[in-house]
Amino acid sequence: MKHRMPVIIGIAGGTGSGKSTFTNRLKDEFKDQVTVIYHDNYYRAHDELPFEERKLLNYDHPDAFETELLLRHLELLKAGKTIECPTYDYSRHNRAKETMRIEPGRVILLEGILVLFDSRIRDLLDIKVFVDADADERILRRILRDTKERGRDVENIVDQYLTTVKPMHGLYVEPTRAFADIITNSGMNDVAFDLVRCKIREILKA
Ligand code: ADP
Ligand code: C5P
Ligand code: MG
């Protein structure tokens, strides 16, 4: 059968806005019919630096990501090829040893704070979503999540938020809202989620 180009849906938004939750709900619904790529898995490896220095890096600037590798992988998936996706360990601030085999599919969800930033990535996206939430809600959610799931303490989260996360959000994440086709307030049963869900169902049926 002739290979059909996948539809790629970008899901962007600030830290703690609910991007991963939005993406995971779609994955739960469509299971293996959709492929998920987390931009966070493309954070650069920093084996050359000790933990104490990796901890202080700016992880909210576009250069923190290995965008060339992501672009190569997206092109491979578009060509119907399988990729070995890197994985990331937030608690060590470094890329993990394991890779994840990802098969090409009809629908790819690409999720991350900056997936709408680079024009080369944007050009590959068929639908662009920006998940929105107030900054106070986002930082509160991040504190709860990072202490539970990413091995962080509150002092460190607050310090990182003020020195890099917040200023980079203003410079690089927030402006990409302008590129979005759909802006959603990340509610659990919102209209935007239904629209994306219906669109995916339609693509899978076609
Ligand atoms: P992101 O990937 O955008 O940083 P997550 O999806 O990881 O955000 O959400 C951050 C935290 O906030 C998680 O613990 C998640 O359970 C919670 N969360 C996500 N969306 C909502 C929402 N609409 N209402 C309340 N809490 C939410
Ligand atoms: O899921 P979320 O969108 O919050 O993931 C992106 C965030 O992860 C960025 O805001 C970045 O500050 C954070 N991050 C981190 N430590 C790393 C890598 C990313 O705190 N080592
Ligand atoms: Mg996330």
UniProtKB/TrEMBL annotation:
<dbReference type="InterPro" id="IPR026008">
    <property type="entry name" value="Uridine_kinase"/>
</dbReference>
<comment type="similarity">
    <text>Belongs to the uridine kinase family.</text>
</comment>
<comment type="pathway">
    <text>Pyrimidine metabolism; UMP biosynthesis via salvage pathway; UMP from uridine: step 1/1.</text>
</comment>
<dbReference type="GO" id="GO:0005737">
    <property type="term" value="C:cytoplasm"/>
</dbReference>
<dbReference type="GO" id="GO:0004849">
    <property type="term" value="F:uridine kinase activity"/>
</dbReference>
<dbReference type="InterPro" id="IPR006083">
    <property type="entry name" value="PRK/URK"/>
</dbReference>
<comment type="pathway">
    <text>Pyrimidine metabolism; CTP biosynthesis via salvage pathway; CTP from cytidine: step 1/3.</text>
</comment>
<dbReference type="InterPro" id="IPR000764">
    <property type="entry name" value="Uridine_kinase-like"/>
</dbReference>
<dbReference type="Pfam" id="PF00485">
    <property type="entry name" value="PRK"/>
</dbReference>
<keyword id="KW-0547">Nucleotide-binding</keyword>
<keyword id="KW-0808">Transferase</keyword>
<feature type="binding site">
    <location>
        <begin position="13"/>
        <end position="20"/>
    </location>
    <ligand>
        <name>ATP</name>
    </ligand>
</feature>
<keyword id="KW-0418">Kinase</keyword>
<keyword id="KW-0067">ATP-binding</keyword>
<feature type="domain" description="Phosphoribulokinase/uridine kinase">
    <location>
        <begin position="8"/>
        <end position="187"/>
    </location>
</feature>
<keyword id="KW-0963">Cytoplasm</keyword>
<dbReference type="GO" id="GO:0044211">
    <property type="term" value="P:CTP salvage"/>
</dbReference>
<dbReference type="GO" id="GO:0005524">
    <property type="term" value="F:ATP binding"/>
</dbReference>
<dbReference type="GO" id="GO:0044206">
    <property type="term" value="P:UMP salvage"/>
</dbReference>
<dbReference type="InterPro" id="IPR027417">
    <property type="entry name" value="P-loop_NTPase"/>
</dbReference>
<protein>
    <recommendedName>
        <fullName>Uridine kinase</fullName>
        <ecNumber>2.7.1.48</ecNumber>
    </recommendedName>
</protein>
